[in-house]
Amino acid sequence: MSVQVRIPTPLRKFTAGQEIVSVDGETVGEALANLMSEHPELKAKIFGDNGEIRRFVNVFANDEDIRFQEKMDTKLSDGDQVSIVPAIAGGRS
Amino acid sequence: MSSTHPAWTERLEARHPPQRHEKLLDLIGETPLLRLRRLVSDLPPEVEVWVKLESMNPGGSVKDRPARQIFLDAFEKGDLGDGKILIDATSGNTGIAYSMIGAAMGVEVHLVMPKNVSPQRKDIVEAYGAKIIYSDPMEGSDGAIRLARQLVDEDEKGQYFYADQYRNPSNPLAHQLTTAPEIWSQTNERVTHFVASTGTSGTIMGTGRGLKKFNSEIQIIGAQPSDAFHGLEGLKHMPSSIVPEIYEEEELDGVRWIDTDEGWDMADRLASEEGIACGNSAGANVVAALEVAGELSQGVVVTVICDHADRYFGE
């Protein structure tokens, strides 16, 4: 099953300039893990040393923040979109 | 001013002369300067660190100053008035300042913001009556700038005045004319270092120029996020961004690079250890100021608390 991950501008240098990367994954956690194995340099940008998503990084599954869904266990369907968005314009929880 | 009424003789230490103003614009600026105490307990007493509480402006942030100057200069030049609409790209605080001043002066305001701006920001500017136009959140503040430019380019009716805070000389001028002399006076002419992080760079460029006129020896130190992918509100990582035209790095005496986590942690510490609840860009400012202060044996270091933490709560 394939989902699309949208990459924000400052991270596209780690995805060979791609704005959208297609990866497999039944959940957000799986999709992100597969994204990291394809583009390992993304890992330290998105995840902290404790293995959690960094505080200022928001992950959306189909336009809704995964913190308000099942977090990394949020289920995905074929063709779904996952977005990695820095909280650069507000949105501190 | 003096009174013999007994009520005036009680609790003198808690009493300040109350002010009154004819116009909202007169409430902007003249913000308090507060000395840090607990966060600097490891520094020698000859090294002072002071913060300017820009969060106490009526719009709640440092951006009230450039916004006021932009309105005043635009009216003077005839760019505003006659029903013209002010438009600009903003990640938040400038938008709030424009909206507040627009409401008070009867000017319509349109704001281009990344769609992931916090709900509180939207609510505040809409309460002031401004209209929001959303840009792609994946492109951050640069995406908002590009969309604002496009809207202005396509504005055939000529209804817009493009405030363009990243390019408008009124932005740094506001700080040169107001922030700098306030700091000079509030430190009793002793300020040795001014430190501020850069978004549009108006604060550091304008305050820097103003302070250098008082004393060219004063060191002006900028600060930036250490990485292109960061979470420091309103700040720009210049090497990977559209560099604001008002930013003249050669006028600075140094630049410090701040990690997002350092800025966020310092904002938390400012609240819990100093009683100053502020946003994370203010946290970044204090990280940089303490770094500078830590290298001194004596000096008076000043930085800015850009806004209040309550702006970021309750997403």
Folded structure, characterized:
The complex is a heterodimer of chains A (93) and B (315). By secondary structure, chain A is an alpha+beta fold. Chain A has helices at 28-38, 43-46; strands at 2-6, 20-24, 57-61, 64-65, 81-86. Chain B is of the alpha/beta class and 315 residues long. Chain B is 35% helix and 17% strand. In chain B, strand 7, helix 6 and strand 8 form a beta-alpha-beta unit. In chain B, helix 1 (64-77) packs across helix 2 and helix 7 crosses helix 8. The radius of gyration of chain B is 20 Å and the shape is globular. Chain A binds chain B through residues 6-11, 19, 45, 48, 54-58, 83, 85-93, and chain B through 91-92, 113-114, 116-118, 120-121, 137-144, 227-233, 237, 240, 260-261, 264, 280, 311-313, 315.
Task: Give a brief rundown of this model.
The complex is a heterodimer of chains A (about 90) and B (about 325). Chain A is about 15% helix and about 25% strand.
Helix-strand layout with pairing:
The complex is a heterodimer of chains A (93) and B (315).
Chain A: E1 2-6, E2 20-24, H1 28-38, H2 43-46, E3 57-61, E4 64-65, E5 81-86
Parallel strand pairs in A: 1-5
Antiparallel strand pairs in A: 1-2, 3-4, 3-5
Chain B: E1 33-35, E2 47-53, H1 64-77, E3 85-89, H2 93-105, E4 109-114, H3 119-127, E5 131-135, H4 140-153, E6 160-162, H5 170-186, E7 193-197, H6 202-214, E8 219-225, E9 254-258, H7 260-274, H8 280-294, E10 299-305
Parallel strand pairs in B: 2-10, 3-4, 3-6, 4-5, 7-8, 7-10, 8-9
Antiparallel strand pairs in B: 1-2
Helix pairs in contact in B: 1-2, 1-5, 2-3, 5-6, 7-8
